[in-house]
Amino acid sequence: MASAARALGALLHRASSFSSSASALRSASLVHRNGPTGGASLFQGHVARRRIWTFQPLCMGRRSCKIAGRKGAQNLKKMKRNSKIGKEIVAAIKKGGPSPSSNTALAALLEKVRELDVPKEVVERNIKRASEKGQDTYTEKIYEVYGFGGVGMVVEVLTDKITRSIADIRNVVKDCGAKLADSGSVTFRFRQARVVNIKVTDADKDQLLSVALDAGADDVIEPNFDDEDDSEEEVLERFYKIVTTSENYPVVLSKLQEEGLKFETDNGYELLPLNPIEVDDEAMELNKDLVLKLLELDDVDAVYTDQK
After folding, report:
1. What is the pLDDT of residue 74?
2. Among 181, 193, 262, 304, which has the minimal tally of Cβ within 10 Å of its Cβ?
3. How far apart are CA 207 and CA 215, in angstroms?
4. How would you label 153-168 residue by residue, b for 16+ Cβ within 10 Å and e otherwise?
């Protein structure tokens, strides 16, 4: 009788442990699907520490995984933008003081903050950081990388510790099996331009081409519509890119406004590949993994590739 009681007790204990483990697993998976607040970012070392999850997102098939990946990329893009502005605020205050009335660079940044709807706490945190003892100013750096399938990458960095940033980038590149390139080895494959991004759902192609022509734009780049596996939601996140010079940029915006066409808030300059390279699926995935890991670094602001 005692033996049977002990056996029943052990069975109940195992059932209780299994229930607790399953509950913990569900909670961890739910947290991961929601993602870290704001996503991983350049500013995470300074704005919010990056969270590292031990569980992969729960995806039901390829489509769900792609949607989860796209939403994560959107959060990452937004957080990178906010973090860059935060660092620029620190740099502007270090150089010209905390008063927008006498610091034109800071005044311009605060105006940009309002346009982009950057959270107030990001601004306040970095204004405070600029006055902290021992806080260095931020420096822009460019690093170049040879990816896979002949693809080149340009990594833009805004950092207060150059030695840290290069060490972090070197480790990621090495771990992914890629290679750091010498200065000038990759950048010549890109051109810098002002770009206006318009969602495909916010403009008719012919109308957009007409507006761009009238405004004196250099080019209109269409998104890739060839992937039949993309969901409707993914298609809605595609953008036309109107390419123009810095001098002509306000003219393009004015023409778009006259036509009532919506466009993304100014994100500054972009690097556009001169001759995009087509690669196989394996190289494409390896390059994607490398880019995402680079973007997870606190100091990295943007990564451009010439992959088609």
Report:
1. 64
2. 262
3. 12
4. bbbbbbbbeeeebbeb
